[in-house]
Amino acid sequence: SALLAITTFNHESNFTDPASFWKQASETSPHSAFAIMHMSEYEDNVDRRCALIRAAYKLNPNEKYINFYYAEMLINTNKKDSILRAEQYLLAEKRISNFHKCDFYLARIGVEKNDPAAAIDHLLDFLKTEPETTKEGAEADNNLLVLYLNTNQTNRLVLLAKHMKELGLPVPQEIMRKYQI
Questions:
Q1: For residues 20 and 86, which has the higher predicted lDDT (pLDDT)?
Q2: Any idea what DSSP says for residue 180?
Q3: Distance between CA 178 and CA 181 in Å, rounded?
Q4: 30 in helix, strand or coil?
Q5: Cβ contacts of residue 148 below 8 Å, gap of 6+?
Q6: Of the four, 7, 99, 109, 113, which is 20 to 30 A from 80 by CA?
Q7: 77 burial via Cβ count (<10 Å: 0-12, 13-18, 19+)
Q8: Whether the Cβ atoms of residue 173 and residue 180 lie closer than 8 Å to each other
Q9: pLDDT (tens digit, 9 = 90+) per residue, 109-144?
């Protein structure tokens, strides 16, 4: 009982917060892509975060969510070639876990590739799972409005704008006036 208390006391600092937990996990399991991947979530330094994501990917490219994090890292560079390269990782993640947030980024890639139909489809798939009241859900609705406007899909634009208004989401005033919503 005393030994257990000492052991617990010695490891208690490893559980003070998620960052401490994942730091300890990645240090004690340096070959765990899972632990290193999660440690990257708590890294504020972008270069170190990217290094952790690359290390986790190298250890196990089939680890659930690692392809998503790798793609997100590429997209956050805001360089067109990196954004387009992210597509392969997002598609791999969809095969591994079918993580719905991949569709949010695949929509952006659709826009980058000048494929608004694909972008719309990905946003609609994303919104099947993501509540519209979340930040990303509201952003997806806004992106859909723009895509419907740019592709002259007036009926879909009006329906979405009315739906957004009912949810209490902001709708651009020019759309409200032009389409009498």
A1: 86
A2: T
A3: 8
A4: coil
A5: 120, 154, 156, 157, 160
A6: 99
A7: middle
A8: no
A9: 999 999 999 999 999 999 999 999 899 999 999 999
For position 17, what pLDDT does the model report?
Answer: 72
Rounded CA separation 33/50 (Å): 14
Q: Which 8-state DSSP code applies to residue 49?
A: H
Q: How confident is the model at residue 11 (pLDDT cuts 50, 70, 90)?
A: very low
Q: The whole model's pTM is what?
A: 0.84
Phi-psi bin for 63: left (phi > 0), alpha (psi -120 to 50), beta?
beta
Task: Quote the DSSP letter at residue 26.
Answer: H
**Residue 88 host element (H or E):** helix 80-96
As a whole number of angstroms, the distance between CA 12 and CA 112 comes to 48
∠ Cα 57 81 33 (to 5°)? 5
